[in-house]
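STRUCTURE REQUEST FORM
Protein name: HAD family hydrolase
Source organism: Aliiroseovarius halocynthiae
Requested output: structure tokens
Priority: standard
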Amino acid sequence: MIFWDLDGTLVDPKPGITGSVIKALTDLNLPAPNSDDLEWVIGPALLWSFEKLGAPDPEAALDAYRKHYTGGGMYDCSVYKGIPHVLEALTAQFRMSIATAKPHAYARKITAHFDLAQYMTHEFGPELDGTRNDKAELLAYALDITGDDPARCVMIGDRHYDLKAARANGMAFITAGWGYGGQDDLSTADAHVKTPSELPGVIASLIK
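Status: completed
Returned output:
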């Protein structure tokens, strides 16, 4: 089984996520960094990000964010070049699932909108109430549902949250070098790829 992170791995969500964060902070009369200074919010649970941004009530900030995000921000993203071709190639040989920190209620709409859902056996993400916000817990839940042996699985992601989740569950990890993990320590990944076209060969070497 291949587990894919969504944001920063399959799609570039920067305009929609950072734009919705800025609008949420503005709604609450809180200081709003510019979009480039908010790239670090792409990946972890947004409730944690609003805490780090100093929101007195992170839940209220998250509610404001979701108003803007569901109002159109979720589709203000793009599929990375080469991803559809790679998914098409891999689906003939491997089962694939989404494992994202984005609530699955949103992730499923995005994968359907961009025609990525057709390649996925399952799509795992937290509940809207925050259940399974922790990526390691989410991946453990996914393995319980699929019944897969983690030793025969690989997680593909761009952030250290993805790497830690894979390691916590005894799973190989591939770093997607086109994402938002540039400042993360990903040195212990099993492989680091710079382009999607490298993935099929690397995955085949890790899942035997």
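Reviewer notes: The longest strand covers residues 172-176. Residues 86 and 197 are 7 Å apart (CA to CA).
Form closed.
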